[in-house]
Write a structure and sequence with these properties.
Order of helices and strands: HHHHHHHHHHHHHH
Number of strands: 0
Distance between the termini: 12 Å
Shape: globular
């Protein structure tokens, strides 16, 4: 009740009344606008005043630009529910959002301001986010949730390592794989909580039938195997041992997903997309295993994880949270379903662009167009909800 009263008495811009509002909206706008620019750079039609190599700029801004915005929106909304404390809003939220935005500008113009200055500005956001979330969790004495602070801190450290490796080695190879591995692990952790939970809640309302299997020893084994395989991939992406580890992790994640009764969720697209998004996790393991044996291009597995698992899961979380926290019915409209279809098409097209080099150009263009439609489509459809005060 205290939290609700605080939200009622807040008189600032509605956009900064809750963390999910600015970060979901502008994170989506940024991710959607990035891809046409990246394709122009990729084709040699444009250049950026960044100190990063073009590929590193693209990887960095997806892993450490877009993804942290979604993480921030999710955590700044979830933590008040976990702790019972008031949400971070108003000026403190504006400062956090300003730090994120400053980081995007600093990276884009790092060739002009210098890589050291860009590193300092860009690193600030994740550090501030970790401190803000940690303070709320400690004040609320919810010690078991401190692990999310660890994840944000690891992401901050990996971001700093990316800057350093890109400058001293020319390309950020290890740190880019480490960033992907860390975010994929986060998808597995969060997905392992929300996918079976939301599925069970929806199926329970529909009567009898198979329900998702609760988290147990098998899930723990799957997480350990997946984490070990990702660590092996970060250290040595090629070789038989890495391929075996990745293949085993993929099989375990397929079984884990099958235990969640996803085949029963076809009627509810808000739940179904969670299962589809998670399916890209084992797909990434399998494709990366084949890549470790030099049978397919490395980018196939990478984009199964990034465009597929990360892209689909972030949109699934953003749409559901935006509807729920603005008082809307938890139902996927035609526009929301089009957003989901577009992100899946984008991921599949990007994967097949790596698997079919002869058709890579049209597939890349399809992947880019579908990604833009999905992310900017989310921004267009959900902007009225995100920028408007909730009616209690």
């Amino acid at each position: 009740m205290a939290t609700m009263q605080k939200l009622r008495s807040y008189r600032g811009p509605a956009l900064f009344s809750y963390g999910f509002r600015p970060f979901f909206l502008f994170g989506a706008i940024y991710a959607g606008a990035m891809i046409p620019l990246w394709l122009a750079v990729f084709y040699g039609d444009a250049s950026l005043p960044a100190s990063f190599a073009p590929r590193d700029w693209h990887v960095h801004e997806m892993l450490f630009g877009y993804v942290p915005a979604v993480i921030a929106g999710f955590l700044l909304t979830a933590v008040p529910n976990w702790t019972g404390r008031l949400p971070i809003q108003g000026v403190p939220l504006m400062i956090l959002f300003g730090a994120w935005l400053a980081g995007r500008l600093a990276v884009a113009f790092s060739g002009l301001i210098g890589w050291q200055a860009a590193l300092g500005v860009d690193a600030m956001f994740l550090v501030l986010l970790a401190l803000a979330i940690g303070r709320e969790i400690i004040a609320g004495r919810k010690w078991n949730n401190l692990k999310v602070v660890t994840i944000v801190t690891l992401l901050a450290v990996t971001n700093i390592a990316f800057h350093l490796e890109a400058h001293f080695n020319g390309l950020a190879e290890f740190s880019s794989r480490a960033g992907i591995a860390l975010v994929v692990t986060l998808v597995c952790v969060i997905g392992g909580r929300i996918v079976p939970s939301f599925t069970r809640n929806w199926l329970a309302r529909r009567g009898s039938g198979r329900l998702p299997v609760p988290f147990g020893k098998f899930d723990a084994v799957t997480m350990v195997a997946g984490t070990a395989a990702l660590i092996a991939w970060v250290a040595a992406p090629s070789g038989r041992l890495t391929a075996v580890a990745l293949g085993l992790a993929g099989l375990l994640h397929v079984v884990r997903l099958a235990r969640w009764a996803g085949e029963r969720t076809l009627a509810d697209r808000l739940v179904l997309i969670l299962h589809v998004a998670y399916a890209f996790v084992p797909a990434g393991f399998f494709l990366s295993a084949l890549s470790a044996l030099d049978l397919v291009a490395p980018s196939a597995g990478i984009h199964a994880w990034t465009a597929g698992a990360i892209g689909s899961m972030t949109l699934a979380v953003m749409t559901r949270a935006s509807l729920g926290h603005t008082g809307q019915a938890l139902s996927a409209s035609f526009a929301t379903q089009a957003i989901y279809a577009s992100i899946v098409v984008s991921a599949l097209a990007r994967i097949f662009a790596a698997l079919e080099p002869a058709h890579s150009i049209p597939l890349l263009e399809l992947a880019g167009a579908a990604w833009v439609f999905a992310l900017l489509g989310f921004a267009l459809v959900y902007a009225p909800l995100l920028g408007r005060a909730r009616k209690f």
